[in-house]
Amino acid sequence: MKQQKDVTNDKFSRYAEWVVKWRWLLIITSVLFVILLSSGTRLLAFNNDYRVFFTSDNPQLIEYEKLQRTYTQIDNILFAVVPEDGDVFSTNALSALEELTAETWLLPYTLRVDSPTNFQHTSAENDDLWVRDLITESASMTDLQRNEARSIALAEPFLNGQLINSSASIAGVNVTFQLPQKSLDEIPLLVGKARKLVSKIEDKYKVKIHLAGMIMLSHSFFEAAMLDMKTLVPAMYLIILLVALLLLRSFTAILGTLVVIMFSIMSGMGMAGYMGVQLTPPALASMTIIMTLSVADSIHLLSTIIVSMRSGMDKLAAIKNSVRINASPVILTSVTTAIGFLSMNFSESPPFHDLGNITAIGVMAAMLLSLTLLPAMMLVLPLRVKQIKTKSSNRMEALGRWVIHKQKTILIVSTCVSVLLLSFIPKNTLNDNFVDYFDKSMAFRQASEIIDSEFTGVYQIQYSLDSGEANGVSNPEFIQKVSDFTDWLRDQSEVRHVNTITDTFKRLNMNLHSDDKAYYRLPEDAESAAQYLLLYELSLPYGLDLNNQLNVSKSSTQVIVTVSNMPSGSLINLTERGTDWLKINANIDAIGVGPAVMFSHISERNIQSMIVGTLLAVVIISVLIGFALRSVKLGLVSLIPNLLPVGLAFGLWGLFIGEVNLAVAMVTGMVLGIVVDDTIHFLSKYQRARSEKGLYPEAAICYAFSTVGTAIVVTSFVLIAGFSVLAQSSFGMNSSMAILTAIAIAIAMIADFLLLPVLLLKIEAWSSNRKSTVIR
Questions:
Q1: What is the C-alpha separation between 634 and 302, in angstroms, rounded?
Q2: Which pTM does this prediction carry?
Q3: Sign of the Cα pseudo-torsion (255, 260, 263, 265, in order)
Q4: First to last CA, the chain
């Protein structure tokens, strides 16, 4: 093994000499290569469609898009109007609603506008059916007329709970859009015009308008990403500068670190452009992660240079020595980190494929730049370091001696703490709730929470009920099944509103029996039902037809259920209960679909797919460590301090948080790729002490502590700081992922300093005893 190690050292010694000789060529080549890669950024564009989070074969997405093709799309903006006086039937509030209803028709891509003012109220006059807007010319309405409109609206199932609340303190204008999906700026353009209209109505009528709906959800992804770009990236640069200044105390070293960071990001994002990646909040988070990870390579290389120069070595020799001893661990840690992020390609959500791929490219670029451009820059730029005796290595060596002395206690305590924390993992429950994807400072979340608590629900479940025959929706038997299903839904505590064609049939039946309330029931024969429906449709104005409830052949109808904000597991449960009820009681096969249902299912599907990716990453990383360190024993030992932090982090998460979303569910492979870095650096120094210096295990551990301990502390704190910055993201997926990752990195640092040395001593003792037994 020693001979193989010497060969490896000779290779990197020759490489160090080559770097010194061709420094200017490396600088010029690196700059040109990065410029070439970064030119791909011109091809990048932001995709703010919420559907981007789902693969094309996602079963919930397939069913949802099938429903969208059958009925009117539900891509909408809900304008929730809150009057100052708390009465939506005041003259001022009705005028605001009336003007808002008229103006929203002029927004780009508007397909349909539903509001209390344009609700198609039906009434009978003699033998005639009158269909007209519930409210017109509101400014001239008398108190009696407004009170009559209030009574009608609150008694109408279509309005109450959907476009007006029971206390008549909030009313809504729901605008449905049909986006051509030919340009990625359609949604930002639409939202910009909608907000301009809102500002105009608010100023004119002194009302407050909250915006929610699927269009606002999609736009919020874009807003969250742009906000993070403006705040998180500058904050990360500031942290890096402070850490580099405190550790390196050299302007040249700080400059080199910043160049590596910027070039790594440019390389990753440029390649993303060439790969056709469309940016999303998770994909943009790769910038902050690349910054965080690229610092580690630079710090290991630069800290060795500076420590060597402080101990009396000249700059040229210090750079050669740093490249020689750091090249192998830097390459290995970069490759394992890239593998961890590449495991994200097993995720169910394409934006996280992009996050993993961009970060992996950035990490590999950082590796190449750290071993080429960075030492070359240090060679040509002035690097002055005072020769001082530092205390950090002595402190680290003292920590190593303490660990050796307390190894038995450390092993017992580590085991007990690990068992305790691991027992909390089952307390984690899946919950993907798209409103909670955003920070409470985001306008979309604020509006959604107000609407959910005071107005109507923000989640919808859609069921398509098929009669099995053309014009079957007029069949009394089928209509009764739909009505029974509607009644069952309204009895469920989670349901806020049900939009169903049966309410229209009942109202029309009453109207055509002289508005006799005794006839507020379903028509008794198919012919009457079909005639009512035809008469009603012919009376409807443009844009307010029944395409959102009936398909073209009138063989099926859509039931839209609006529900309260709830955990994703509860939403799935309600959806499945509806499906089961239809199957058992109506012999109808119908699956509940919708964006909320899609997001609710994604974590469960993601965990199942990520198990394969994580296991593959574990196997590949373990094999690489064993191969690179030329030791199966060390490869096996490394598994414990690398896998344990992830498990303990999930245990702490279960203890204090308890909810796992899409991003958190896929952290394992990514974290494994990151936390393995410090383990590799420690093991490489330990093995160097054993093979090159011939030290005993205890002395080799002290040597590893003294040579790499400070760098491990610094890089760990940089990583924790970097992910702590990302934890401030206004996008909840990124925030949760970052928090869990930071926890795992902190635990990994403790494990590398306490548990790893103890395990090395135990396995060395076991190996020695085994050899002694064999000899005897």
A1: 27
A2: 0.86
A3: negative
A4: 24
